[in-house]
Task: inverse folding
């Protein structure tokens, strides 16, 4: 490449692509340590009650077994002592499950014992021999029943300004008295993340007070904090390594009982313990997208101006911990409506605690909102895009302040063109190809363009490369690649001279990878670190070459092993600058978004267009075309960004058409517990997804102009497909997924 | 998963001899059903007897029809020119099943013996009459959206055979050759091979202890050459059928001379519908005939709350399949 070719906005191949496809990239379950042992968890078979007896004798005596740990013999975990946040104190929001702490069962398949053995096979065999007896208590896993006792989250009770609190502008529930209105209920079932890599951890006590974890996590710093607290250790005594993460979609944003269990197992045996959940355990021992009931009332004038929206939601949570998400956020800001009411509630059930799943609450909320928009447009006999345009918000109606940037209108136009929106007929059931009914639908998504604080270090190495380090993780989007591009442009170096290391808690701190914030946050820190490095190099050069003393850091360049100034006005070999160890090392903190955050509302926006075919006889739905358009600010890497949009769109297909976990409420236990029962899209379900980026910078978010794409890739896809199904068939499915039984 | 020993049987005699001594031992061919169940602790055989060295191989034309060795792989059979030409429905049933990886492993005999996907059967924490006779059937009042509506009983509503191949085999009068522990062979039509659940859902077929499936023979016929297998499922590939239909028609001058119909995904066993065939035979190949045949096929359906849709879905699937071959 020529040195002045811009890397930002290019399609640089993944810097770790070769390592991943050749198997050289090491995931958390692939670390082999001396004396390694294997842990297998035993789950409860009831949903609520107490363990009255636990027979571990056979397991204990099985070949190769080193320990069988349960509430009967678990060592005292300092962080498991009473905190006053127990579920019996409902105002506190509860707390995570304390594994092996007591005899109480709070959900089905709750870990009740850990078997540690010298091989995985022996551990697995022995786990099967553990026998538990229970005193059952009446459980409740049914949302319809649970919703009767739905409650305001404690965060909203404490803080009326919390996004979880009731929201009101204009008159409450004003739609009820309007002439033109709709009122409908929408349901999203429990869905599971099921990343390809199952949750796994290798826990190693390197000394009685020093813990190393090779762990599947989206945040090395958060995981370090959790387990330092759990074991009452100084944070720097806990090391978390998550160099590669094989997908997560949110389910590694919290610490889970299996991680605590592996650490306990390593403590008891004095040997490192490797523990990987089975696919079945991925349904119960880590989080999931909560079952959510929603109701929308909407009214409009005959010429298509929305006059009122009421959006209510009840989400599932566990009996011991409140989980909340921003299900109603999009409704408060997406469309112009003088009267607007939102009410968010939780229903506590005897299940494990949910967690954010890609697009999180916004994806759930947008299914209801964007379906309702389609229903209203149909009532008004308006094109659904035209209806959205008539209610387009030029500034944030929730906060009454301008958008930092908003190019959603451009997304509508481009998406309509790419999908062939002009073929859409106002009358459902009009288009047909043989026995296949064709339809078109759209759905809009939005997610906050958040930027937090992050630290990044940068060091000029003797070989002329620059090493950057940060504790952030890469769960798949290609973080290392994007950071390499940002550093390359800032330093004026080709990407192969940059090395960006991540995924270790010992590196400079950064938050978890989640909420579409990594490029916004860490990207800015990388840019800052690179500029700081240039400045440091300038300072180092100044004593010997005075021209550098007065030079601006932006003008300093790294060229062919030298620090240079424009026009070759000055030139110092790197070797001269690197005479003192660590001289060319900077460690920079970039702060979270500041003043602009209060002046502007910052969001990424997306719109998805679907063309579907529904078989008239059998109700099979095929997504024939999916177009995803995003206003996500500057796109750092066109290829990995498009890849992320496509992955999110396919996730949306799963949400719309197949993902559905079934609990038998009589037993409080999942009936679907493998990939034969719990369907995710296969290649044949995924059409070629067309992606369009507006690619306009938003400098209010950061100096790169990025806004984030991970969540908006999924938000709005499910309603686009549901709306297309309606357009094809005239059948409105308000409870996902849209399986043939609902259309036949 | 339990500890087990492993033996590669060199002959049928050796294989059946092991089961005679150790009735709890299990045969393994592709292992795609057995290993799943062992990992879920549903089966705990002390010994596995590998059948892959047995001479139950070959796909060849015989005077009785096309004979397929039981140890042949699904992919090999599905792609074999004789199968594709003479029994398109059989080929399609094989190739629409599972995934390429599974089809490369799974044997024909093993496929015929695959077990139900009923979620209650597959989890030992639930009661299940098929797994633990007398413990009850939670599916009847529970999640049964993809369970059977034909041939069910108060004891079990599972689609005991959830797959595809046997549906096509049932339609085209396939005959199984079995060999018992004494080395004696017998021939059983596949339509008589499976047992309805009745009060004994744990008994799924007529195999005696240790008896092996040696081969499948499918008689050639005009209706078999003009046949198709249509599979409706919750995603485009790699899913069990909600409803499927194997149909073959011999149509001349617009009149159906002979017809074969079997349904999958809806019966407690692969569901041959002689009622539908009766309606079709001698009738004009028209939509009205197909609708009448579909109605006849589902006449005895006993749907429950969550699988009621299957009555109409199966009829529509059958009509669509008949339209394709007419």
Result:
């Amino acid at each position: 490449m020529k040195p002045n070719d811009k890397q930002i906005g290019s399609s640089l191949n993944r810097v770790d692509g070769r390592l991943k496809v050749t198997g050289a990239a090491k995931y958390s379950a692939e670390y082999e340590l001396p004396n390694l042992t294997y842990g297998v968890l035993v789950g409860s078979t009831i949903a609520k009650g107490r363990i009255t007896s636990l027979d571990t004798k056979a397991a204990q005596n099985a070949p190769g077994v080193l320990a069988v740990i349960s509430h009967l013999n678990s060592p005292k975990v300092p962080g498991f002592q009473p905190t006053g946040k127990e579920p019996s104190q409902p105002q506190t929001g509860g707390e995570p499950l304390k594994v092996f702490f007591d005899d109480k069962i709070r959900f089905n398949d709750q870990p009740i014992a850990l078997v540690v053995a010298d091989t995985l096979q022996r551990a697995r065999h022995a786990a099967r021999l553990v026998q538990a007896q229970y005193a059952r208590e009446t459980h409740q896993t049914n949302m319809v029943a649970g919703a009767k006792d739905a409650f305001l989250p404690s965060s909203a009770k404490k803080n009326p300004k919390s996004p979880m609190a009731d929201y009101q502008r204009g008159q409450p529930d004003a739609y009820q008295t309007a002439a033109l209105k709709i009122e409908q209920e929408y349901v999203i079932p429990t869905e599971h993340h099921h990343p390809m890599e199952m949750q796994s951890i290798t826990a190693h006590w390197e000394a009685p007070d020093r813990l190393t974890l090779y762990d599947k996590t989206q945040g090395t710093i958060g995981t370090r904090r959790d387990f330092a607290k759990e074991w009452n250790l100084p944070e720097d005594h806990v090391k978390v390594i998550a160099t590669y993460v094989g997908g997560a979609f949110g389910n590694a944003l919290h610490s889970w009982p299996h991680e605590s269990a592996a650490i306990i197992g390593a403590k008891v045996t004095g040997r490192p313990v490797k523990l990987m959940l089975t696919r079945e355990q991925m349904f119960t021992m880590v989080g999931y997208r909560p079952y959510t009931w929603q109701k929308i009332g909407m009214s409009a004038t005959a010429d298509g101006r929305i006059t009122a929206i009421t959006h209510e939601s009840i989400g599932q949570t566990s009996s011991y911990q409140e989980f909340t998400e921003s299900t109603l956020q999009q409704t408060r800001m997406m469309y112009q409506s003088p009267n607007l009411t939102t009410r968010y509630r939780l229903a506590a059930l005897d299940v494990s605690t949910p967690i954010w799943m890609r697009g999180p609450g916004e994806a759930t909320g947008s299914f209801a909102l964007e379906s309702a928009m389609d229903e209203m447009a149909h009532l008004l006999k308006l094109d659904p895009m035209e209806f959205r345009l008539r209610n387009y918000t030029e500034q944030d109606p929730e906060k009454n302040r301008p958008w930092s940037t908003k190019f959603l209108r451009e997304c509508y136009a481009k998406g309509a063109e790419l999908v062939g929106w002009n073929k859409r007929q106002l009358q459902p059931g009009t288009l047909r190809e043989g026995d296949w009914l064709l339809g078109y639908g759209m759905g809009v998504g939005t997610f906050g363009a958040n930027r937090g604080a992050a630290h990044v270090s940068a060091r000029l190495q003797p070989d002329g490369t620059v090493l950057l380090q940060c504790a952030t993780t890469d769960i798949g989007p290609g973080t290392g690649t994007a950071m390499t591009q940002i550093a390359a442009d800032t330093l004026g170096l080709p990407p192969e001279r940059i090395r960006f290391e991540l995924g270790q808690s010992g590196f400079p701190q950064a938050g978890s990878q989640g909420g579409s914030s990594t490029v916004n946050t860490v990207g800015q820190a990388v840019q800052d670190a690179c500029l700081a490095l240039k400045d440091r190099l300038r300072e180092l050069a100044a004593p010997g070459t005075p021209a550098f003393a007065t030079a601006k850091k932006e003008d300093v360049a790294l060229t062919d092993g030298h620090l240079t100034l424009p026009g070759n006005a000055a030139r110092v070999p790197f070797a001269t600058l690197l005479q003192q160890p660590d001289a060319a090392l900077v460690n920079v903190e970039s702060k979270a978004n500041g003043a602009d955050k209060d002046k502007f509302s910052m969001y990424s926006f997306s719109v998805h267009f679907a063309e579907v075919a529904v078989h008239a006889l059998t109700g099979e739905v095929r997504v024939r075309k999916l177009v995803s358009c995003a206003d996500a600010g500057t796109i750092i890497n066109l290829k990995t960004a498009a890849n992320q949009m496509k992955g999110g769109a396919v996730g949306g297909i799963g949400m719309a058409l197949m993902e559905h976990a079934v609990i038998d409420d009589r037993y409080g236990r999942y009936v679907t517990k493998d990939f034969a029962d719990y369907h995710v899209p296969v290649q044949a379900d995924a059409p070629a997804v067309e992606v369009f980026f507006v690619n306009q910078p938003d400098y209010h978010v950061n100096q790169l102009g990025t806004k984030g794409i991970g969540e908006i890739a999924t938000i709005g896809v499910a309603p686009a497909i549901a709306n297309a199904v309606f357009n094809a068939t005239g059948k409105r499915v308000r409870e996902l997924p849209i399986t043939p039984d609902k259309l036949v | 998963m339990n500890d087990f020993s492993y033996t590669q049987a060199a002959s049928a005699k050796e294989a059946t001899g092991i089961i005679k001594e150790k009735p709890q031992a299990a045969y393994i061919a592709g292992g795609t059903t057995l290993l799943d169940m062992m990992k879920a602790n549903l089966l705990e055989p002390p010994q596995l007897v590998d059948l892959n060295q047995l001479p139950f191989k070959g796909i060849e034309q015989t005077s009785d029809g096309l004979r397929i060795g039981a140890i042949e792989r699904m992919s090999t059979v599905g792609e074999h020119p004789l199968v594709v030409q003479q029994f398109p429905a059989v080929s399609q049933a094989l190739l629409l099943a599972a995934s390429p990886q599974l089809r490369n492993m799974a044997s024909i005999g093993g496929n015929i013996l695959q077990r139900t996907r009923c979620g209650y059967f597959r989890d030992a924490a639930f009661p299940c009459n098929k797994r633990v006779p007398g413990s009850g059937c939670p599916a009847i009042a529970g999640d049964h959206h993809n369970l059977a509506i034909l041939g069910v009983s108060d004891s079990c509503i599972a689609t005991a055979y959830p797959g595809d191949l046997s549906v096509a085999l049932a339609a085209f009068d396939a005959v199984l050759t079995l060999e018992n522990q004494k080395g004696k062979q017998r021939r059983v039509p596949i339509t008589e091979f499976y047992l309805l659940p009745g009060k004994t859902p744990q008994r799924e077929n007529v195999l005696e202890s240790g008896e092996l499936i040696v081969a499948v023979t499918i008689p050639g016929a005009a209706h078999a050459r003009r046949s198709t297998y249509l599979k409706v499922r919750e995603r485009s590939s790699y899913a069990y059928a909600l409803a499927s239909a194997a149909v073959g028609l011999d149509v001349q001058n617009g009149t159906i001379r002979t017809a074969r119909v079997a349904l999958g995904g809806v019966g407690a066993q692969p569901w041959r519908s002689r009622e539908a065939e009766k309606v079709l035979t001698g009738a004009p190949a028209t939509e009205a005939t197909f609708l009448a045949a579909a109605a006849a096929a589902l006449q005895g359906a006993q749907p429950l709350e969550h699988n009621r849709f299957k009555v109409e879905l199966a009829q529509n699937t059958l009509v669509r399949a008949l339209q394709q071959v007419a």
About this structure: Chain B touches chain A at residues 1-3, 40-41, 117, 119-120, 122-123, 125-126, 138, 141-143, 145, 232-240, 242-243, 309-310, 312-313, 316-317, 319-320 (CB under 8 Å). Residues 72 and 107 of chain B are 5 Å apart (CA to CA).
